[in-house]
Amino acid sequence: MSKIKKIPLRTCVVTKEVLPKKELIRIAATKEGKVSIDFIGKAPGRGAYMKFTKEVILQAQKTKALDKKLEVQVPNEIYEELLKIAND
């Protein structure tokens, strides 16, 4: 009997969709307020997951969803970098 591998699920802070962790990008914020894009999903600090599409990134920037979730002000550079590497 093979063990079924559990797929870790996370909720997108913008769309509130519950999706497999692999389909989302994690943004991390340290206690010092340093915000970074967490590609490996293991950066220290508070993390927020969101869908990796231009539409969602722009919506997050507009609604300040990440700022609220991470309790820091997310710099525009983070959004710019996300938009540069977004996959659509």
How would you characterize the overall build of this protein?
With 88 residues, this protein is an alpha+beta fold. The chain has one domain: Hypothetical Cytosolic Protein, Chain: A (2-Layer Sandwich). Helix content is 30%, strand content 25%. The protein has three helices and five strands; from the N terminus they run βββββααα. The protein has helices at 54-63, 65-70, 76-85, and strands at residues 9-11, 18-20, 24-29, 35-38, 46-51. A three-stranded antiparallel beta sheet has the order 4-3-5. Strands 1-2 form a two-stranded antiparallel sheet. Strand 1 (9-11) and strand 2 form a beta hairpin. Helix 1 (54-63) packs antiparallel against helix 3. The longest helix is centred in the middle third of the chain and has 10 residues, at 54-63. The chain is globular and about 50 Å long. It starts with 8 loop residues before the first strand and ends with a helix. The mean pLDDT is 93.
Run of helices and strands? EEEEEHHH
Largest sheet: 3 strands, antiparallel
Outline type: globular
**Rg from C-alpha positions?**
13 Å
Summarize the structure.
The protein has 88 residues and is an alpha+beta fold.
Describe the protein's topology.
Blueprint: E1 9-11, E2 18-20, E3 24-29, E4 35-38, E5 46-51, H1 54-63, H2 65-70, H3 76-85
Antiparallel strand pairs: 1-2, 3-4, 3-5
Keywords:
single chain, 88 residues, alpha+beta, Hypothetical Cytosolic Protein, Chain: A, 3-stranded antiparallel sheet, two-stranded antiparallel sheet, 30% helix
